[in-house]
Design goal:
With 380 residues, the chain is an alpha+beta fold. Helix content is 52%, strand content 16%. The protein has a 4-stranded mixed sheet. Strand 2 and strand 3 form a beta hairpin. It is globular, with a radius of gyration of 21 Å. The mean pLDDT is 97.
């Protein structure tokens, strides 16, 4: 595998970095404080082509691929994890199921709006009582003529209040656990569908997280993605790719922690010299740099494998698990290096510390990633 980025990838990386610094960074603290995503940013990201990165040209995207999306997400998350996850869910968790399992009519109908940023997508798998045990979900979808009638509640849905389109997983059969789940494209205007309470979170506060309710919501049968009963397969396949996006998020947060720590260590004077001259600080920075580089290689490898159409489930889980560990350690070190200043909202490392934690939880906890990895390693 060639670990040198192409000139095209370097250009994408620099473009995303410049956009993040100029457009997103000035709004990051405000979105965190107000717990509200700035929608104008999403349209600007669409104009930059970010929302169409993994969508083929025939459906309105630019088809730059998953490694390109990694590079974009890393740079955006470096300044604002809330904006990063908003884009990641839209690009990977909504468009992925449609691209890989949808029919031609569904691709033509929904992907151009996602690629062009005219609509935002969301992914609705988790329920109040079913998180890691996704195969046990209880939301029902009963066939009634040309429609399915959906009833139930989804929880912890990223982009839930700003999205227009949702991939929703519901039970079409009680006879089988994982083989009794199907996937549907649900439009926000659907009668019987409503957005519930907004969650107030520790981190990624600028990203909206809500409950979704379905009360006899009628969804056309033509909006079912794939055959009936393969929803769990679709969900897991989608998460394999989505975890690469979260690894990129963790990587971006960690890089921000390192950058800010280096800058502060050079400026902060104690005992008559910059704290950067102290070995304790130097060792923390050395460990951060080494671990971030390792996480980056894992993440880029997983993305490249996905671009090549090769198996990447184990590699995606490895990247997500390791990058999230590195991100949280880097955030802890960054606050420590900043000392009392790092414990205040005057410095962004306080926000990085809060944002980092979620990378160990959503799109499969660290414990779930270890299960995925070990199953691959122990398979016959």
């Amino acid at each position: 595998m060639d670990f040198e980025l192409t000139e095209e990838h370097k250009l994408i990386q620099q473009t995303a970095r410049d956009f993040a610094d100029q457009k997103i960074k000035p709004l990051a603290a405000k979105m965190d404080k107000e717990e509200k995503f700035e929608l104008s940013l999403f349209q600007q990201m669409a104009e930059m082509g970010f929302t169409g990165t993994v969508i083929p040209e025939e459906y309105g995207g630019n088809g730059a691929g998953n490694l390109a999306l990694c590079l974009i997400l890393e740079q955006i998350n470096r300044v604002c994890a809330s904006t990063g996850v908003t884009l990641s869910v839209d690009c990977s968790l909504f468009s992925g199921p449609v691209r890989y399992f949808g029919n031609e009519e569904q691709k033509k109908k929904y992907l151009p709006d996602i690629a062009g940023g005219r609509k935002i997508g969301a992914y609705a798998l988790t329920e109040p009582d079913y998180g890691s045990d996704a195969g046990g979900l209880q939301m029902s979808a009963v066939r009634d003529g040309d429609d399915y009638v959906l009833n139930g509640t989804k929880a912890w849905i990223t982009n839930g209040s700003i999205a227009e389109l949702f991939i929703v997983f519901a039970r079409t059969s009680k006879e089988h656990k994982t083989r009794g789940i199907s996937a549907f494209i649900v439009e926000k205007k659907t009668e019987g569908f409503s957005v519930g309470k907004l969650e107030h979170k520790l981190g990624i506060r600028g990203s909206d997280t809500v409950q979704l309710s379905f009360e006899n919501a009628r969804v056309p049968a033509e909006n079912r993605v794939g055959e009936e009963g393969i929803g769990f397969k679709i969900a897991m396949h989608t998460l394999d790719g989505g975890r690469i996006g979260i690894a990129s998020q963790a990587l971006g947060i960690a890089q921000a922690c390192l950058d800010d720590s280096i800058r502060y260590a050079k400026e902060r004077i104690q005992f008559g010299k910059p704290i950067a001259d102290m070995q304790a600080i130097q060792f923390m920075i050395a460990d951060m740099a080494m671990e971030i580089d390792a996480a980056r290689l894992l993440t880029y490898r997983a993305a490249q494998l996905k671009d090549e159409g090769k198996p990447h489930s184990k590699e995606g889980s490895m990247a997500k698990l390791f990058a999230s560990i590195v991100s949280n350690k880097a955030a802890d070190n960054a606050v420590q290096i900043h000392g009392g200043a790092g414990y205040t909202k005057e410095f962004p490392v306080e926000r990085y510390f809060r944002d980092a934690k979620i990378t160990e939880i959503y799109e499969g906890t660290s414990e779930v990633q270890r299960i995925v990895i070990s199953r691959h390693m122990l398979a016959d």
